[in-house]
Amino acid sequence: MFPPPDTRHITPGDDACPSRGLPSPLAVSAPCHAAEAPVSRRLSEPGTRRADSRSPRVRTGGAGSAHNESGARHPGCSAVLWATIVSVPSRAEGVAVRADESDASSLERATRDFIAARPRLFGIAYRMLGSAAEAEDVVQEVWLRWQKADRADIVEPAAYLSTVATRLAINVAQSARVRRESYVGPWLPEPVDTTADPQLGAERGGAVELAVLFLLERLNPMERAAYVLREAFDYPHRQVAAILGTSDANARQLVSRARKHLAAERGEPVSAVDHRRLLEAFLTAARTGDLPALEELLAADVVSYSDGGGVRGASKIPVLGRPRVSRYLVAFAPRFWPPASIRWVEANARPAVLVSHGETPVALLSVDASAQGIDRIMWMMNPAKLLPYVASLGG
Q: Is the dihedral of CA 100, 106, 108, 110 positive or negative?
């Protein structure tokens, strides 16, 4: 686990070279502080998940004061964080000014800094972990550590917070890799509604599509972090190196390896218009069991993934190749589609289809497509991932 980062001397625009006191990357495997359990263990223990952690409207809230004129919770602030914020005494409520008023003022400033950085923190953690719930847990852990930090010496809070979030996400990713080896069936990233924030806190909209997150899962956590920081958030290589506690040259190698891996696994994606057109045609062919139409739409090496998490009836192995995938889709069409209603939605900045049987959502259908046709078909059927996404849609 990484020790707490030292970003006291990082200022806006500073590339934060590793010689300024940031810990060695070797510290990722070092023991935690005696008073703390490893974050990857604490965040995965039963009862640690926050009840409000699944709302993308909360995740993507903007910066600014945590309070609004009505006293309601700020949209960028989770309920757990809000409970801490409102415990700070308020003069407007007639609370006597305490001797430690400066501490309350410091916490208010810290809260504003945290809320301003929160969309980015969630965006980094979510892209690295492919789990909105785990990303929210990381963000909450950053907040807890931010309260304990010696903030007086931190020149640039955003740099400090991003560093803590990235390193915590690396620790969680290392633990998640072991857990996912025992996952029942294919693992797919948890979808999020990006209608409120298409870039999910990033300066650039990359690395948020489900297909990209799925491929990032195959990288080691350091490569994943380097790619996300560089491609989605446009950090210069020297700042990526500082956050990861490595050299500039190694940071460049990490980013390069990640890019090459994704380029080898994924063709150039089609435009948003063509993506929607292909998904519409695929949906029509799948619902009617039209084998020739399906074969026309699918790429030769297409793969169909069904994530049921061992809870829903879904294929426990990926289905590979145009002939097999086409026949597979035709075979289950008579059972799956007649009772189904569909709703067009957006998931991870791409069109998707929510399938329900009666009042029960049963699947989120999304595809990844290139000039060769539909390369990946992704069926999210695991209720633990599907239902929070559906709840976030409202209406």
A: negative
User: Alpha-carbon distance 305 to 379, whole Å?
Assistant: 6
Show the tokens assigned to 4: 């707490």
What secondary structure, in 3-state letters, does 198-251 show?
CCCCCCCCCCCCHHHHHHHCCCCHHHHHHHHHHHHCCCCHHHHHHHHCCCHHHH
Q: Scanning the structure block, which residue is given the tokens 């078909």?
A: 377
Domain ranges of the chain: 18-265, 272-393
125 secondary structure, DSSP code: H
For the record, the structure tokens of 80 come out as 């757990």
Contact 200/361 with Cβ under 8 angstroms?
no
Instruction: Answer whether CATH 3.10.450.50 is correct for domain 272-393.
Output: yes
161, 158, 268: which is closest to 209 by C-alpha?
268
Helix, strand, coil distribution of the chain in percent, nearest 5: 50, 15, 40
Task: Please state, for a pLDDT cut of 90, what percent of the chain lies above it.
Answer: 64
At 170-225, the pLDDT tens digits run 999 998 887 888 889 999 999 999 998 888 888 887 789 999 999 999 999 999 99
| Residue 265 reports pLDDT greater than 50 | yes
- The answer to whether the pTM exceeds 0.70 is yes
